[in-house]
Amino acid sequence: MTLRVDMPRLQADIEALAAIGRGGKQGGIYRMAFSDGDMAGRTWLSERLIQAGLGIHQDGAANLGARLGGDGACVMTGSHIDTVPDAGYLDGALGVICGMEALRILKERNVSLSRPVELVAFTDEEGRFGGMFGSQAMSGKLSPGAIHDAVDASGQSISEAMAVRGLNALDALRAQRDPGAIHAFVELHIEQGPVLDHQARPIGLVEAITGLFRWEVSLTGAANHAGTTPMDMRQDAFQGLAEFAAEIDRVLEEHGTSRSRATIGRVQLLPGAANVVPGEARFTLEVRDTDAAVLAELGDAFGRTLFAICRRRDLNFTHEISSRIEPVACSSLVMDAIRAASADFEIQALPMPSGAAHDTQMIASIAPAGMIFVPSRAGRSHSPEEWTSWAHIETGANVLLNTLLRLAR
Ligand SMILES: [Zn+2]
């Protein structure tokens, strides 16, 4: 049996949600967690689920969804409807709306299933308060302390933001699912990168989701007069940083894989004057890979490189680990279902890693999990430029629907 989504209805829903929270000069979307836009999106989703006769369910972490079928381990699908500021209309929303459409089709066709199917829109995936709040709660990774410490860039806490909406953030501790409660989890998402578009492939089969570490590095030398200090007598922190940046490609070649990425995304020079040799260079180093052992080796190699540069240039360095996410391998149960569902439509799904973090990464710790990617035009995302052709959206939605069918029958 192969099922198909109702494309006009799916398209109308994607357009309707895309209109919620839209603003700014470029027409970007603003649905940051618990903002007015996010709340309006939640209301819209609730109404659509109720209209479809699916009912709604909201857990203690304000994860919003619906369930088709009764008790027992469920097949779950979902993503998020919150956004970064000035976002595109598909990141997250695509997975939630296509998941809703899948539940509608399964219900309307009266498909007999041996497992319940559940939809979830996770809270704060995009990180107004740090990110993946809902999927962390569902997978039991939150603590009262972590909830207390979750604040946005303006200093407002998630507890305050939820209280304004009549919610208690500590209830998130009750959102954890029992082991075995989720038979399998599937997330449909835009790729947010250029690979599928570039290779003209309609479906990506995610094999692993990249992990990362982020360092806050400080190189210190000596601030001094830019005119009177000879070049060979300087302890120039910026020169050390520049040399380190030039070593990134070599370190990746020697110690990384084709999936490794390293980025210096923010730099600050102190004291920061045109006529002063920089005494301190502060910068971030973010390194990603899909293999935990490779990430560990890259950490060692970058540390040794910094050490050697500092010794040569008479500098000191310190680094703090500000973030660390373990890579996740996708489940063969879910990957097999995605591969077979793609074959139903005569598509050979392209095996690939996910370079971006997703809720699937959290849920993978409590259930077999996997992801389906559809192409992002020119790889654009987290921007109003984000888009995917309707044909590719239809294909992705059909593959999701039939993946869920295969896992739940
Ligand atoms: Zn997303």
Task: List the main descriptive attributes of the protein structure presented here.
Aminopeptidase; Alpha-Beta Plaits; 36% helix; five-stranded antiparallel β-sheet; binds zinc ion; alpha+beta; single chain; 409 residues
Write the layout of secondary structure elements.
Elements: H1 7-18, E1 22-23, E2 28-29, H2 36-51, E3 57-58, E4 64-68, E5 74-80, H3 93-108, E6 117-122, H4 133-138, H5 144-149, H6 158-164, E7 182-190, H7 195-199, E8 204-209, E9 211-220, E10 224-225, H8 237-255, E11 261-263, E12 267-270, E13 276-277, E14 280-289, H9 292-313, E15 316-325, E16 328-329, H10 332-344, E17 350-354, H11 359-363, E18 369-374, H12 390-408
Parallel strand pairs: 5-6, 5-7, 7-18, 8-17
Antiparallel strand pairs: 1-2, 3-4, 4-6, 8-16, 8-18, 9-14, 9-15, 10-13, 11-14, 12-14
Helix pairs in contact: 1-3, 3-12, 8-9, 10-12
